[in-house]
Amino acid sequence: MTSQRTSICIALFCVAAFAESLWAARPPESDPGLSNREITKALDAGNYAKASEDLHKLLSQNPKDAQATLRLARCYWDLGDYNQAVNYAERAVNLAPDCAECHLWLGRAYGLKADKSRSILLARKCREEFQTAVRLDPNNLFARRDLMEFYLEAPWFLGGSKEKAWAQVEDIASRDHVEGHLVRADYWREVDQPLRAAQEYQEVLKLRPKHVEPYFQVADFYESKGNAEQLEAVVHAASLIGPNDPRLAYYRGVARVLDGRQLAEAEQYFKEYLSRAPWREDFPPHAAAHDWLGRIYERWGKMQDAIQQYKAALHLSPDNQTAQDRLHRLESN
Question: Is residue 216 part of a domain?
Fold first, then answer.
């Protein structure tokens, strides 16, 4: 999503998780008790350290709880501990071999670990798990979308194929109109045809989705294109669906920086986002908000404040090339 769809497909081998699937899976042997509700609350708030602690307690009582095992894998995924994410996702698959969601998250964990280690073997395992998830549940659009993006981005020797990717696009579109336009847009963006992508995003808006996630995927596109007017329109549409979603503050801030005329409002929106938004893979990263704040302070001539924000961005995301370049330029002057 956003510059973090840096989000939501990470490098070559993996895509970001989508919010609706983030904690919704129900593999066998779930625990309906109060502790499980508390864990869900912690996960939704992005408190993964607390959630992982409680999940370990649950598993100490019932090591064969597949749902708790899967949730722990996803928790480590968001914490960036991909070794543990793989470990617990593999356990979840062993406990519930017919659970498509377990295979999907094992594929995602393999994908991120493959990206970190540049492992061809893990990349192939990533593809195989996505394929298994689709085979087990052909209606799992998240699995199909991940598989599509793998086919589209992976080189041919890992199974990459634009033809296979497009086949998944068409299958998704046949099952869900909104997701069909979104995944077509993903395809056109990846093959560097932004005008076609923009057409698909406009089709999404015409359908007026009843949930907020598609709007933020469209907002990510207009942020990447620096289109303040379109971004503001998408944010307004999203606010009618999810008026309390903290992501609105982030995109409102971006639109105002791009427009260049309401920087004081933009500053407050980014501060609001940093104070309210949980650390979640499907949310704009806090590093991006710090980066935008740095740009605001640069325009105001507050160079030390800008340097502080770029350093904060790099602390959270060391690979943020934009923040690196801006920081180097300021510190060199």
Answer: no
